[in-house]
């Protein structure tokens, strides 16, 4: 190896090495594979149920099936995107997953609350709204944490790029 190549090849700091190892670990990839399988299987199950109905479904039921199908396919596509990447994503997958979770949770909570208000009692609608609000808050917290982790990793990466060799 020439002297020039030795100077260009810097040692990776242990902190960055640990952070990037967690990003591309087998455990992380298995979690994303499970997410993709769950989303894909849910979408397939809903599509089969919808396709095999002997009579046409009401418009509201078709809209609900279409929404659930879209949610399952979105999670499967997200997992496929993450698993197709061969390099660390610097927590970009966490941010995207948290955004998806927040969008799905918000839509589901609003739809559930509207349905409970139309078909149930005021107490039932309030219970659904409170449960939905708690889930939306949890998804929002996950998004804030994911964005914070991404900023931390990007700052570390940028600091390493600026270091003199």
What do these coordinates show?
This protein is mainly alpha-helical and 165 residues long. It has six helices and no strands. Helix 3 runs antiparallel to helix 4 (59-84) and helix 5 packs antiparallel against helix 6 (122-162). It is elongated.
Throw out a few tags for this protein.
165 residues; mainly alpha; elongated
Show the helix and strand layout.
Elements: H1 3-8, H2 14-23, H3 26-51, H4 59-84, H5 92-119, H6 122-162
Helix pairs in contact: 3-4, 4-5, 5-6
Number of helices: 6
Q: For the record, give the distance between the C-alpha atoms at the N and C termini, rounded to a whole number.
A: 17 Å
Mean pLDDT value: 88
**Whole-angstrom Rg:** 22 Å
Structural class: mainly alpha
> What kind of assembly state do the chains in view correspond to?
single chain
Which residues sit in consecutive blocks of at least 5 with pLDDT less than 50?
none
Looking at the structure, what is the overall shape? elongated
The major pleated sheet works out as:
none
Fraction of residues in helix: over 70%
What fraction of the residues are assigned to beta strands by DSSP?
under 5%
Helix/strand order, N-terminal first: HHHHHH
E-strand count: 0
